Amino acid sequence: MNDTQAKYPQLRFKGFADPWEQCKLGDVAKITMGQSPNSKNYTDNPKDHILVQGNADMKDGQVHPRIWTTEITKIADKGDLILSVRAPVGDIGKTSYDVVIGRGVAAIKGNEFIFQLLKRMKTVGYWTKYSTGSTFESINSLEINNAVINLPKEHEQNKVGKILSYMDHAITLHEEKKRQLERLKSALLQKMFANKSGYPVVRFEGFSDEWEERKLGDAVSISSGVTGDATLQDGEYRLTRIESISQGTLNVARLGFTNKKPDQKYLLNLGDILYSNINSLSHIGKVALVDTTGIYHGINLLRFQMRNDVDSEFLFQRLNTTPMKNWAVSHANPAVSQASINQTELSKQPISLPTITEQQKIGSFFKQLDKTIALHQRKLDLLKEQKKGFLQKMFV
Known about the structure:
Blueprint (H helix, E strand, L loop, with lengths): L2 H4 L14 E4 H4 L1 E4 L8 E2 L5 E4 L5 E2 L2 E2 L3 E3 L4 E3 L4 E4 L7 E3 L4 E3 L3 E5 L2 H12 L4 H4 L9 H5 L2 E4 L2 H38 L20 E4 H4 E4 L13 E3 L5 E2 L2 E2 L5 E3 L14 E3 L11 E3 L5 E2 L5 E5 L5 H8 L2 H9 L12 H5 L2 E4 L2 H38 L3
Helix pairs in contact: 3-6, 6-11, 8-11
C-alpha cells in the first residue's frame, strides 16, 4: 500500500473524500502522565479523592472507584480518557469523575474519535513494539506523545466517533441485561429448590406437597464411559471428554474421536446428563445436558440416565445449584493424581424431588431463562463482531 492509499479508510460515510492527515498523538491531545501518591495517604473513604492506579480501577471502559487518597499528585478531569501505561499496556477507558492518577495510567484529553482510535491501537497491538522484551511491560511519555495516528477533519471524526459510541452503548446494554438475567437465575436456583424443610421458598401456583428426599442413584442410572484414547482431529466416531463440557452445554467442537466403533450401549440419548467426577477441582461437578445425537460416552465423565419419574431438565438445573456444586468439590479426593468423586458415594447423595409435573414446570422455566440469556449472548457476539469490523475498516 502506498502513501496515497494509506490516507483513506476502506469504509466511509458519504460526503467525505479528503485524505486523512498523519500526525502525532501529542500534537492533537494533551497527555498527562500519572504520579502515584504516597501509599500512606490511601483511604477507603469515598469523600476523599478517587485514585486511578491502573486497569484494576476500570471496568467496561469506565473508571470504577476502588481506592481513594488524601494526596493530590496528577489529576484527570471528568470526561478525560484514561490509558493504561503498565501491564496490560494500552487498555483505554473514560472517567466520569475528577480523579487522581497514579503512575500506571496517563490522562488524555480527546474526543470520542480519539477514544475509539486508542481502542483500535490496543486491538491491533500497536503498543506491543514498545513493551516487548522489557522486564516490566510499560510505555513512557515520549512513546505516547510520538504515537503516529491518522486523523480526518473534525466533522468526520464526530461522525465516526458517534456511530462507534452508539455500538458501545448497545453492547453495554446487552451485557448489563445478560448480567441481570444471570443474577436472577442464580437467585432463583437457590429459592426454587427445596431446602432442609422439604419445601422451596419460591413455588409455582398449584403446588404445595412436600418434596420427597431420595438418593441420586435411585433417581438416575449412573454409568461410566467407554475406555480408549480420543484425539481431537482423527476418527470416525465422536466421544465426549472432560473438555466437552462448556458452560452447561456439550461443546461439539471439543469432542474426541476414535476409529473404533464403541458398543451401542455407549451411544448417548437426548436428555442424558454428563457429570464430571474426575480431573481438577475446577472441573468437579460440572454438568452438561445432551442435546445432540450421534455421540458416544467417553471416559472421565459419568452418564446420568433418568428414571421414569425424573425430568432431565429439572435435574440438570438442580445439579447447577451452589449447594450441589459445593458438595461435589467437598467430596472430591484431591490426594490422588486427579481429584475425583467416588461413584458409589455419588449415588448415595440425597436429592429432593417434587412430582414429575412440578419438575417439568421448573425445568421448562429455567430452560426458557437459559434461552433468553443465550439470545443476549448471541446479540452481544454479533455486535462485538460488527464493532471489530468497523474498527478495522473505518480507520486508516
